[in-house]
Amino acid sequence: MILLQNFPENPFRIFYIFFLFILVQILISCSPENEVPIKEPPPPPAVTIPFPEAMYVQNGCASCHGREGNGRGTRSSLLSNSRVPNFQDKSTYIYGSSKEAIAKTIQNGIPGTYMKAYSHMRKKEIDAVANYIQKMQK
Ligand code: HEC
């Protein structure tokens, strides 16, 4: 106000007051009390795929044999001229439907067919997948 009294005749006084008013408003709005805390969205729930299923999908088994093992995977066009077993139906296995026989097929593959040997897989992984396939049998 002392400042204002210094310019009593100033025709721009009204603008000066207005400017001071705006400045005070800005300063008030900058006070930390007015800060709205930023709410971070909660993290999405963790998805864990059980180990055997992950092995079955990651190694590409599902792409030929189907996610449910019914022989209708996404690569069915590649296998149109080939025999594809239905893991759900025990009678369609020709190399044995026991856990041991399935593990052996995975390990050695079936020569001359699209079923390649998965000899690079660890025994623990092969056993887990064999167990998973056996559980599909009805
Ligand atoms: C590129 C396609 C393809 C992929 C990938 C594939 N398979 Fe196969 N699989 C076949 C075909 C085709 C057969 C049947 C071969 C034949 O006997 O003519 C077969 C046969 C089998 C059999 C023998 C079934 C029987 O008749 O006794 C088992 C078990 C098997 N696959 C498991 C697996 C597992 C486990 C994986 C993944 C680690 C896998 N396959 C990946 C195509 C595939």
From TrEMBL:
Q: What Gene Ontology terms describe what this protein does at the molecular function level? A: electron transfer activity; heme binding; metal ion binding
Q: Which residues form the Cytochrome c domain?
A: 47-137
Coiled-coil residues are: none
Q: Which residues cross the membrane?
A: 12-30
UniProt cross-references to Pfam families, sorted A to Z: Cytochrom_C
The record's annotation in SUPFAM superfamilies points to: Cytochrome c (SSF46626)
Keywords (A to Z) from UniProt: Heme, Iron, Membrane, Metal-binding, Transmembrane, Transmembrane helix
Name assigned to this protein: Cytochrome c
Q: Which organism is it from?
A: Leptospira brenneri
What does UniProt list as this organism's lineage?
Bacteria, Pseudomonadati, Spirochaetota, Spirochaetia, Leptospirales
